[in-house]
Amino acid sequence: MALNSPFRLDKANGKIMGVCAGLANYFGIETVWLRVGFVAASLLGFGSPILIYLVIGLVADSQPA
Fold this sequence. Notes:
Radius of gyration: 12 Å
Number of domains: 1
Structural class: mainly alpha
């Protein structure tokens, strides 16, 4: 899989901070699968997905409008 563009937050298609939408665009997968995986990991008791989401949302650049 060739990744052509750098990772950017996708706030236009995102629900909260655009992290899942940006990751889905970056990896070329459906956003819903990334969101389901994130929610499942969070509900199963892993606290790190929430922290990772917040760090990515605060540090990463947004897509240009």
